[in-house]
Prior knowledge:
- By secondary structure, this protein is mostly beta strands.
- 4% of the residues lie in helices and 43% in strands.
- It is built from 3 helices and 29 strands.
- The strands form 6 sheets. Strands 10-9-12-17-14-15 form a 6-stranded mixed β-sheet, with no helix packed on it. A 5-stranded mixed β-sheet has the order 11-19-18-13-16, with no helix packed on it. A 5-stranded mixed β-sheet has the order 21-20-23-27-25, with no helix packed on it.
- β20 (319-329) and β21 form a beta hairpin.
- Bound molecules: CU-O-CU linkage and copper (II) ion.
- Residues 368, 421, 423, 426, 431 line the site of copper (II) ion (CU).
Amino acid sequence: MSELPLAVAEDENPDPDVLEVTLHARVENMEVVAGKTTPVWTYGGTLPGPLLRLTAGDRLVVHFVNDLPEATTIHWHGIRLPVEMDGSPHSQAPVEPGETFTYDFVAPDPGTYWYHPHVHDAAQLGFGLYGALIVDPPAPPPAELGDEVVLVLSDIAVRDDGSLAPGDEGGDLATLFGREGGVLLVNGVVQPTLHARNGKRQRWRIVNAAKSRYFLLGLTGHSFQRIGGQTGMYGDAVPSDELLLAPGERADVVVEPRGADGATEQLMWLPFDRGYGSFEFRDPIPILDMEIVGDAIEEAPLALPAVAPIEPLDPNGAEDVHIRLTKETDAEGALHMGVNGVAFDTAIPAQVGQTQRWQIDNEMEWDHPFHLHGFFFQRLDDDGRPSEPVEWLDTVNVPKEGSVEMLVRYDNRPGPWMFHCHILDHADAGMMGMIDLMP
Ligand code: C2O
Ligand code: CU
């Protein structure tokens, strides 16, 4: 039984409006699976990398040093930043082994974000390179939301001798499915224990940092109150028994731990049907023990702070963009995934200030989580209006043989912006494209 750990980055800058850190990416030998030594790829020697926490409007400066055996970058998933800081291989030269790069940008929007590499994404992320990035609103969150717990969910593929399974193990078939590591982790640990004061609310900020695995979550004897998602908070809590986080997605939820003193409840990974092979013959897996401590205390009912409602984007006059998520097999029988039948370089032209209405059709028999860099979008419901509660998203699950419609408005940050499937094996197989945003 191990406690729930999470390293926190140390601020090297006395200015309260700047978080300045030095981050070394390096291989660290760790005991992820009991009795085995695994050479994990880490940010700063910990799994996950250190939590970076700042207030909206603060500047983040990261002196990044690449001590890994191959080139890499850091992408700040969900943050609306200048394109040169996006960590995309289209907007910066990959940082070679032994080299450094300084990321320096302002984080404008409160929310739950994360960071990860964007070179050999699937392999590098699967080897352990990811961390959480939280941007607080300028006013501190009210105490009645409870103590905050950050949960970084992931998985890792460790072989019998402790080594990491190579990123291409299993060939095209594994790529097509998306490689899931057999060892499930919460904050880098197998089934850690969280001690929870009986009746005292907790705010869980959850990141799905796995390269391919979906997390459908249930908490035995409890339900969730979802108070936010990827950015910002909702006006009202949305109750649910289960939470789905596709790769790249985040959730902000309140949990009210209750039970007998010393009782253990479990956070479960539940099989989710994202297509053939994902659901059949798979059992729920406990990923976290929540141990209830003490006699029940009573708290006032949950009341969310008043938040300015998110204005729904206006679909009138939006330019239509239609993309298809596709797969092909070439004459040699090799697998190619793509957008509109093209691997890697489908380019969508756009103009600063413009609004586009995207229709994303999934032609495959598996779900794909669609992620857009640099800009938020609003999902549309069947009647073409932004769905309630109106929220800003950067990642959305596109169901198998289904589609998603969304509106995106481009602010004044021209450049090449990526979009891709966040099952990173699919992205690496070509399911990505680019928005060419022109001034
Ligand atoms: Cu989290 Cu381009 O990705
Ligand atoms: Cu995909």
